[in-house]
Amino acid sequence: MRKHPEGCMIPSPMTLTEKVLARASGKTHVQPGDNVWVNVDVLMTHDVCGPGTIGVFKREFGKDAKVWDRNRVVIIPDHYIFTADSMSNRNVDILRDFVREQELPYFYDVIDDPSGHWKFDASQGQLSKQYGSRYTGVCHTTLPWKGHTRPGEVLFGTDSHTCMAGAFNQFATGIGNTDAGFILGTGKLLIKVPESMRFYLEGNLPPGVMAKDVILHVIGEIGFDGATYRAMQWEGPGVHGMSMDDRMTIANMAIEAGGKNGIFPCDQKTLDYVRERVEENGTKSAFEPAEIDREQSFIYDKVFDLSKLEPTVACHPDPGNRKTAKELEHVTLDRAYIGSCTGGKTSDFLAFAEVVRGKTVKIDTFGVPATTKVVQELKDTLWGDQSVWQVLESAGVRLTENASCAACLGGPVDTFGRLNKPMKCISATNRNFPGRMGNKDSEVYLASPYTVAASALTGHITDPRTFIS
Amino acid sequence: MAHTVTSPVYVVQDNIDTDQIIPAQYLTLVPTIPDEYDKLGSYALIGLPDALYPTRFVEEGQFKSPYKIVIGGRNFGCGSSREHAPIALGAAGVEAVVADSFARIFFRNCVATGECYPYDSPVRLCDVLKTGDIATLDFDHDTLTANGVTYSLKPLGEVRPVIEAGGIFNFARQSGMIPS
């Protein structure tokens, strides 16, 4: 608190992250370095970390224990679903058993039978859908779609890209199984308030440049660990010009600079998006956004002019290894990939399709929509007499209806699009440490959907402005 | 418990991410199932590129590593939030990782699980030591001694008793924070 000239006490300014954490911990004010117990609004887990989280919960709270609040637990199988690997299939069954036992309402299962067993049928191939009516796909893209992201809230997930939900003006971060098991039992977690860095965006993105280029540029600027233990707060007129999809792309990759979370202001776009989805899904509709204070304290504060940015690539072997696409035209490629939470949204596929429409890809190109809704939207969107799905297929893209994380993180060897031998791949995903997409001697180049599409057409890294007027 | 550990060290460089510590294909193993916990140990650091790391951390067919101390560079444990990473190291017998710096979630997962001690080193040890050098880590004095030189490490502070207890749940029970 500090003293107002007229004598009354006014609260000291806080950053967006500090505000959300103060409220969640029942305090009027917090500052970086404070350790606070926060009340958790939503806990998300999936098939890779869910079984271990459930194991911790049962070991520590007893086999008959109940979760702290069944309406605040969201379980989304999405990682290793369309694989014949029996352990992976078993892990989805572990989730289903737990959901049934705990009577959890938010479980986006791959099959419809609540007592059934999941088994992927490899004989049907990888392309045509093998899921029931409730399956959604990638967790981080599902959360907003199904009305689980709300401004001002605290979201934890057993996945490092949980920070994507920061696009919705909430504190969202990834945790391990043990912390998640603790939350399942108590609804609380002890966390340290991070220092905040501000990225103030001005201007508009030029043609051919996307939100992905913004975050790749910024990570290149601050380095692969430049935001370690910190919050990345995005502000400025450039932010308000961006769609929610764009903001998600940027927030998603806070972790690639080591960030604890990324967070955006709440504006009319946020409110419209969130209200529509909570209403559609009947999820909790009350929320209180965190507003921007004047005179916040940042450990880093920098203005970025969006109009100056160029198509950007993060080269093997880390997301901070930045070059412009133009500088890399000599790099020949074996494969192109579009998909994942970061790069598999409808808007990403539309951008990709814009570039490849009427042309043919020169290298193996794989497309994995993030969610089943993206699949539907690509089939429902008509460009002339073709759907966007058909536009992509006609260009030679191998598209699957089986929305999931797929080859973004390698996964079991039969995962669609996985790099099973050393090769060079340009990808719209978010991480490129050695072995990330499968073979550990592969090289992955991260880029925007435009750049991935342009490169797929030429077989080498290509500035998409060659194809976009 | 013993307050020192003496062991050959295994030396890695910057940005050893969770995929190099435990590649995603092995995440089908559930750490709370004992057999699968042991298997995670057998795959610890198997994602390191062979060209850069010709010496295997865990020999083929073994579950335990001869290296109880891992020396890393900057940003050790970056990437995914998978708790399988510190667990794989712990299951392989690692007592401590000594690095220039740690990624946030990995550090926290080390503490929460009590699987291994994450020590920050002010001196960049990965440039000084090589795999196979014998080192003694002294937890009481927060030092690492190797090749006749003693290096001061950043004290673990309140993190140490949590790891010593075997993770946050055990610590909370022992200290009366939650009922036992």
Structural class of chain B, by secondary structure, is: alpha/beta
Strand content of chain A: 15-25%
Give the name of the CATH architecture of the largest domain in chain A. Answer: 2-Layer Sandwich
CATH superfamily of chain B: Aconitase, domain 4
Query: Cα-atom Rg of chain A, whole angstroms?
Result: 22 Å
> Shape of chain A from CA axes?
globular
Task: Describe the fold and architecture.
The complex is a heterodimer of chains A (469) and B (180). Chain A is of the alpha/beta class. Chain A has three domains: 38-117 and 125-189, 2-Layer Sandwich (Aconitase, domain 3), CATH 3.30.499; 196-264 and 288-308, Aconitase, Domain 2 (3-Layer(aba) Sandwich), CATH 3.40.1060.10; 314-466, Aconitase, domain 3 (2-Layer Sandwich), CATH 3.30.499. Helix content of chain A is 29%, strand content 18%. Chain A is globular. By secondary structure, chain B is an alpha/beta fold. Chain B has a single domain (4-174), classed as Aconitase, domain 4, CATH 3.20.19.10. Chain B has helices at residues 18-21, 34-42, 84-91, 104-113, 159-165, 168-174, and strands at residues 4-11, 69-72, 96-99, 117-120, 134-138, 143-146, 149-152. Chain B has a seven-stranded mixed beta sheet with strand order 4-3-2-1-5-6-7. Classes of the chains: A alpha/beta (469), B alpha/beta (180). Chains A and B meet through helix 2, helix 3 and helix 5 of A and helix 4 of B.
